[in-house]
């Protein structure tokens, strides 16, 4: 049998590299600004401090944030890093969100007991580019979660076939697009003063002059703003983040 990792290593890479993105909530911003660093924190899945990114696609959202709120602390912000920023820091790479895999959301296509052991690929961004090229063909299709049609597998390529079945709707009915968002794990902090491109955040946050000064002058990041009206559900705002980041990629010739 050909492992999923070996199958991926045989694939050609997509032509270009997408940025890495990390999403968090506003209430974490004070400590981030104090240290100018995204810090690794204890992961309940791998039992060690880790910092999580997705390749290109800002797919993370807190599914529990479904109640309307006037508290901006729960509004999401997303950091976008230049391609090739963390190539030497990557500890693990998976073709999906590992946390969701351990909640059984990828079953029946991929069993939770097999997800972590059978689907880890070499810890290099090149693996992400191979996954995109193989299963989505283009970066646009990957960002839109639109897999290639009619991909065929040999009887020995069971892992790759199971993943293809997963990203075409073979998981639990409540499974979202994180089943196909390439996850990148880093086991150390990331300095925001190095190679950050942009930060997506609510427009109202730029009323804070000190925050604006940090974004522009200290981090050298472009603010990408979206409207977040009081009384919204935080989970509703992630669609706006995806839209403005996709537009930023196009304007920056990353797509």
Question: Explain this structure to me?
Answer:
This protein is of the alpha+beta class. The chain has one domain (4-250). Helix content is 30%, strand content 19%. The chain contains nine helices and ten strands. The protein has helices at 4-9, 29-35, 98-101, 112-118, 125-135, 139-143, 158-170, 209-218, 238-251, and strands spanning 20-25, 37-38, 41-43, 48-55, 76-81, 90-94, 183-186, 190-191, 196-202, 222-226. The strands form two sheets. Strands 1, 3, 4, 5, 6, 7, 9 and 10 form an eight-stranded mixed beta sheet that branches. A two-stranded antiparallel ribbon has the order 2-8. Strand 3 and strand 4 (48-55) form a beta hairpin. The longest helix has 14 residues, at 238-251. The protein starts with a helix and ends with a helix. The relative contact order is 0.22.
């Amino acid at each position: 049998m050909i492992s999923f990792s070996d199958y991926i290593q045989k694939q050609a890479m997509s032509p270009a590299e997408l940025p890495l993105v990390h999403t968090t909530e506003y209430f974490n911003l004070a400590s981030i600004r104090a240290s100018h660093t995204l810090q690794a924190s204890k992961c309940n899945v791998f039992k060690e401090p880790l910092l999580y990114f997705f390749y290109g696609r800002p797919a993370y959202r807190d599914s529990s944030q479904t109640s309307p709120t006037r508290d901006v602390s729960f509004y999401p912000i997303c950091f976008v890093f230049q391609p090739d920023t963390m190539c030497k820091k990557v500890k693990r790479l998976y073709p999906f969100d590992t946390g969701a895999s351990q909640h059984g959301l990828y079953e029946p296509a991929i069993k939770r007991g097999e997800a972590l052991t059978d689907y880890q690929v070499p810890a290099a961004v090149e693996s992400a580019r191979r996954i995109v090229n193989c299963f989505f063909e283009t970066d646009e299709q990957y960002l839109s979660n639109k897999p290639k049609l009619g991909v065929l597998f040999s009887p020995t390529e069971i892992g790759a076939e199971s993943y293809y079945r997963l990203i075409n709707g073979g998981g639990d009915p409540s499974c979202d697009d994180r089943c196909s968002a390439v996850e990148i794990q880093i086991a150390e902090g990331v300095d925001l003063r190095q190679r950050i491109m942009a930060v997506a955040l609510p427009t109202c946050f730029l009323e804070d002059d000190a925050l604006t000064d940090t974004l522009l002058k200290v981090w050298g990041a472009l603010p990408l703003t979206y409207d977040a009206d009081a009384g919204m559900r935080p989970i509703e705002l992630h669609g706006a983040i995806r839209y403005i980041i996709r537009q930023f990629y196009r304007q920056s010739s990353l797509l």
